Amino acid sequence: MLSLDRVSARYADFQALFDVSLEVKAGESVAVIGPNGAGKTTLLRVISKLIEPASGDIRLEGRSLAKVAAHEVVARGIAHVPENRRLFPRLTVEENLRMGAFASRDRFAERRDQVYSLFPRLKERRDQSAGTLSGGEQQMCAIGRALMSGPKVLLLDEPSAGLAPVAVQSIFQLVERICAQGYTALIVEQNIRQVLKVVSRAYLLEAGRIVLSGGAAELLASREIQKAYLGL
To answer: What's the pLDDT tens digit per position in 88-97?
Structure first.
């Protein structure tokens, strides 16, 4: 479904990614894990074309995104849930969902009902300003807004960031439900222990380079991961 072939990216003179290659198969949930500053957010921004890669190729369903502008990426089937949600705080929950369906307005009602079925709490809060929601509810709204475009690939940037421990557990349960419904998802996350419980495979990104990859259970049991990131 999605593949990166030797992708590099930079901010002016600073190189953030070095020859990153990875793939996500249709219906698969994959995580990119690693420390803060490893380049995880940059990786998602490159895929959604918010940053143009310096080199390498990105393909969606075998088609290169090299000449696809950022505003065309959603129509191609990629939806990006940014870190810290980035909702429209003064708009209601339902108005935020409507913005997510901007490129496919004729299917708004159908997809809205699907999102409300997945996130019943959002239906209860549909007329509430998004900025007044709790952190966990805002994350639901951000994910729901992304799902409104009917994505082929869902990019999730640090879905647990800034949430209380109880909300973190709830969000990962929701992510697991989304993946179980057949969505193809690429998740970047610092909460390694939690994310490796809900994905099938993972890549370890350190200083802009992929240094380890494998099945989620395999990485969770890896001595390198346990020592460096889990304190075991």
So the answer is: 999 999 999 9
d(CA 201, CA 217): 8
Overall pTM surpassing 0.85 (yes/no): yes
Question: Would you report the helix, strand and coil content of the chain in percent, each value rounded to 5?
Answer: 40, 30, 30
Whole-number Cα distances in Å, 26 to 65, 75, 152, 175:
17, 17, 8, 16
C-alpha to C-alpha distance for 3 and 219, rounded to whole angstroms: 21
Q: CB-based contacts of 19: which residues, under 8 Å, 6+ apart?
A: 6, 7, 8, 56, 209
Q: Can you read off the two tokens belonging to residue 100?
A: 């997510």
Per-residue pLDDT reduced to its tens digit, 46-78: 999 999 999 999 999 999 999 898 889 998 999
Q: In this structure, which topology does domain 1-77+151-232 adopt according to CATH?
A: Rossmann fold (3.40.50)
d(CA 65, CA 57): 7
Domain ranges of the chain: 1-77+151-232, 83-150
What is the SS3 assignment for 56?
Answer: strand
